[in-house]
Amino acid sequence: EVRTPLNTVYMGIHYLCDRLHRGRIDIHDLQQTLMDIGLSCDQALSTLTQLLTYEKIDSGIETLNKTTFAVKEFITEILQPFYVLSKEADVALRLCFSPGVEERLSSLCLYADRRKIALVLTNLFSNAIKFTKGIESAEKSVIVRVDILDNYTRSSAYRRESCEGRGVVPDDCLSEIENVKSTLRVQVIDTGPGISSSNLKQLFREVIQFSPEKLQAGGGSGLGLWIAHKIVKMHKGELKAESQGEGFGCVFTLCLDLERTIAMNTAEMEDFLPSLPPPVMPSSWEEKSTETVLVTSVLIVDDACLNRKMARKTLNKYMNTVYEAEDGQDALKVLTDLMECGQCVDFIMMDFVMPKMDGPTATRQIREMGYEGVIIGVTGNALDDDIKHFKTQGANDVLPKPLDVMALRCLLHDNGLFFNEIQDDFKEL
After folding, report:
1. In whole angstroms, what is the distance from residue 367 CA to residue 348 CA?
2. In sequence order, which residues have a C-beta less than 8 Å from that of residue 240 and are 6 or more positions away?
3. Residue 50 in contact with residue 221, Cβ under 8 Å?
4. Of the ranges 14-18, 219-223, 263-267, which one carries the lowest mean pLDDT score?
5. What's phi and psi for 205, nearest 5 deg?
6. Strand partners, 317
7. Which of 130, 146, 267, 412 satisfies CB 3.0 to 4.6 Å to 417 for a cystine?
8. pLDDT of 271-319, one tens digit each?
9. Which positions ≥6 away from 248 have C-beta within 8 Å?
């Protein structure tokens, strides 16, 4: 599953090189070939990510990084890219909230690992469109339905106002109060090929593919649903699939517990919170939070020559000055030479694993030199512990390889930096 898309990349690059050598480049053919290469790269990266996630879950080292976030905005955001894919696949895609659910979601939220739940939903949406696309039918549709399920439980509590002064709480002071446990239910309903009862029993096992030669056209690792199921179990939720059989479509149901947001007025908040002194902020805090600086220079630190070369070509589009270093020691030397001349760089892109001196060590020593600019780790070591280690050594943030330029721009913006596309003088070959 990794070699197949890489084969497209390999052949596509050689095809373009041959056409360039012959001087026979058609702009539309060039665009289509590059799009095919890009899609194949994404497919290979997705499969590799699934393999690594599978390994971490199977080894018991996968952890959850839980945060609180709004449900409606989250689902809408995850679903957005699939409208384009569904249109290309001639599949009608709709998002439906049951009556009253949108209003109720304003006071409810999810406390979960946002990235991992996004992975679960992405897998469900992608599968629904992919399999529905492959059927021969005049009406092909995928509906994402969002509900809230309430489970009422009763517990005993005593009425304090009527029981004061009594040593033992009598029965007449006990009352039944209702506790409401709300559960988010997301159903992905498709009109695809359906699943037989025997295959439903195996659906969430690893490396399971049903009729891949007919429906998946060689795509998919067979790990996606296994990973999704495990992630949901880690959240103490439920993921199940239903189908009336082949030819009747499928319904995938995800259930996760919701948390109730607390709404208090100012007086209630003052009573609820202890008296604390106001936080001490640096005098320049406000300016730093709103000020943005145009990036004109960068230092790229990577022991892979081709990685540095492609990063330089990419970033030269946005800034005039790009410095390079092949390891941590070399980076220290480049920065020392610049500082001695009264110069510096706006930000640093730092690899993790390098000979002589690795990225985190170099980052710590660069901070000790007094460098206050932005340092972004760019690494293939995308494990949580490695990212945390990089940040503790002084990195502002960490991006996984392959580098996503838009993600880099977002991180720089979060740290008060931005860069614009500059005019270059393009010359014909």
Report:
1. 12
2. 252, 253
3. yes
4. 263-267
5. -85, 160
6. none
7. 412
8. 433 433 343 333 332 333 445 678 888 999 998 888 888 888 888 878 8
9. 194
Cβ atoms of residues 252 and 241 within 8 Å? yes
195, two tokens: 């699943």
Using one digit for the tens of pLDDT, what is the confidence trace for 323-365?
999 999 999 999 999 998 888 888 999 999 888 899 999 999 9
Answer yes or no: are the C-beta atoms of 334 and 325 closer than 8 Å. Answer: yes
Could you tell me the pLDDT band of residue 239, with boundaries at 50, 70 and 90? very high
State how far the Cα of 364 lies from the Cα of 356, in Å rounded to an integer: 15
- 3-class DSSP assignment, residue 111: strand
pLDDT (tens digit, 9 = 90+) per residue, 5-49?
778 788 888 888 888 887 777 888 888 888 888 878 877 777 777
Q: At 22, list the tokens.
A: 């012959």
| Cα–Cα dist 183/255, whole Å | 6
Of 363, 372, 353, nearest to 391 (Cα)? 363
CA-to-CA separations, 412 to 74, 201, 260, 292, in angstroms, rounded: 23, 47, 34, 9
* pTM to 2 decimal places: 0.59
Residue 421, both tokens: 């596309």
For residue 36, how many other CB atoms are within 10 A of its CB?
Answer: 16
Q: 255 pLDDT exceeds 80?
A: yes
Q: How far is CA 190 from CA 74, 131, 193, 250, 384, in A?
A: 21, 9, 9, 6, 35
Torsion sign across C-alpha atoms 87, 32, 51, 352: negative
Q: Give the up-direction half-sphere exposure of residue 409: CA atoms within 13 A in the CB hemisphere.
A: 12
Residue 20 backbone dihedrals phi, psi, to 5 degrees? -65, -45
Q: Compute the distance between CA of residue 8 and CA of residue 14 in angstroms, rounded to an integer.
A: 10
Per-residue tokens: 277? 């002194």
> 345-359 as b/e, with b when 16 or more CB fall inside 10 Å?
bbbbbbbbebeebbb
Cα 128–131–135 angle (5° rounding)? 130
